Amino acid sequence: MLGSGFIARFYADTLHAQRRKDQIISVYSRDAANARRFAEDYRLARHDTDMEKTIAAENIDAVIIALPNHLHEEAVLACARLGKAVLCTKPLGRNAAEAKRMLEAVEQAGIFAGYLEDLCYTPKFLKSLSSVKAGALGRVLWTKSREAHPGPHSDWFWDKALSGGGAIIDLGCHCVEIGRNFIGKSVRPVEVMCWADTQVHPIEAEDHAIGLVRYENGAIGQFEVSWTFRGGMDLRDEVMGTEGTIWLNSFLRTGFDMFTTGKGAEYVAEKAESATGWLFPVGDEAHELGYPHMFSDMFDAIEEGRPPMETFYDGYVVNAILDAAFLSAKSKNWEKVILEDWRGDRQTSHEKSHISYNEQYYLIKKEILPNGDEKLILKEKTTGKVVQETKRK
Ligand SMILES: NC(=O)c1ccc[n+]([C@@H]2O[C@H](COP(=O)([O-])OP(=O)(O)OC[C@H]3O[C@@H](n4cnc5c(N)ncnc54)[C@H](O)[C@@H]3O)[C@@H](O)[C@H]2O)c1
């Protein structure tokens, strides 16, 4: 485990939970006391303040990168050099150029590389994705993914040079990848329109943004990200297709509501702002956030010699989309997604199939009115004229 902070602990809590078989052997932290504390808390055999030495150790099969964004590249390159399988937290890079260098390094070294995008592994997400892939929603037209909370927990997040940006890079990476999965990873993201602002905090980076990612097949992926939201961590997704809709609420409304006057106040959930009054705790936080399924997929993939569901290539595409979002927020125009390395479909058409009502008409809409009549809105195939027909009850 490289890093001993917030996400390293979530990962360790997940891996060492219940009766899981994958075990952390050692931890690297630049701070010796933190390394020791982490090793004690999770009963690890070793801890060190030397990153290369930790990666190079003989009995290590895989390295988990849980370091701040500006250290991902250095850590990935070290794993490639030392020939160790690598699992890197999100975002892969601070920008697409950085992510591409990491992708190329692991591919040239021939090592396993997984992108730890946990929110694409939550039980709700996995079930939704399987329904979407089975066609339950028809053709996906629009996705919306929202992550908003009162801001991150460490200094480096707030420093644009170290993090690569504010809420867009920190939270947008999740939202964009959620949308990509629903729309289809083989569909090329074409361009992005994004509004971003620094509404509250004294920082250079954006603390609030809304973006639209347009895909080649006509689908649109919306992301809403904020470090200014009050009231906890808001994680919601929506998918709208020609045959159906999905609404997901992954955190503030999981079906667990509790009221307390504050006696016995304890940890409630990530980014919860209060421990009194009406609260929205989360039963098994790691599970709701996707970590167990994510690590199962990663380690199964290593054993089965297949790529994981979330790869470094996915991380690179996400970074390229976010690069376009940053450009658009500045230019106030749609900006092209620059993908020097595109591995998906070469061309995807806008497949619009119209429903034929009879030889003469297309069916636009059918509705039962309050009086029980059925109203049909039709379009004449030859003239294009729109007409309506009412069938009395
Ligand atoms: N849902 C998720 O997947 C999720 C959630 C939170 C964070 N993250 C990601 O995990 C990474 C780490 O975030 P975090 O929340 O754990 O941050 P953190 O600040 O809690 O922990 C970062 C760790 O890196 C160490 N560190 C900081 N600067 C360093 C330096 N210059 N050299 C060596 N070590 C240094 C810190 O001491 C700490 O151990 C980030 O890339 C972040 O985006 C992912």
Automatic annotation (TrEMBL):
Domain (GFO/IDH/MocA-like oxidoreductase) ranges: 132-246
GO molecular function, one term: oxidoreductase activity
Residue ranges of every copy of the Gfo/Idh/MocA-like oxidoreductase N-terminal domain listed in the record: 1-110
Residue stretches spanning the membrane: none
Pfam families (UniProt xref): GFO_IDH_MocA (PF01408), GFO_IDH_MocA_C3 (PF22725)
InterPro entries, alphabetized: Gfo/Idh/MocA-like_OxRdtase_N (IPR000683), Gfo/Idh/MocA_oxidrdct_glycsds (IPR050463), GFO_IDH_MocA-like_dom (IPR055170), NAD(P)-bd_dom_sf (IPR036291)
Oxidoreductase is among the record's keywords: yes
Keywords assigned: Oxidoreductase
SUPFAM superfamilies: Glyceraldehyde-3-phosphate dehydrogenase-like, C-terminal domain, NAD(P)-binding Rossmann-fold domains
Classification via PANTHER family: BCDNA.GH03377
Protein name stated in the entry: Predicted dehydrogenase
Species this protein is from: Cyclobacterium lianum
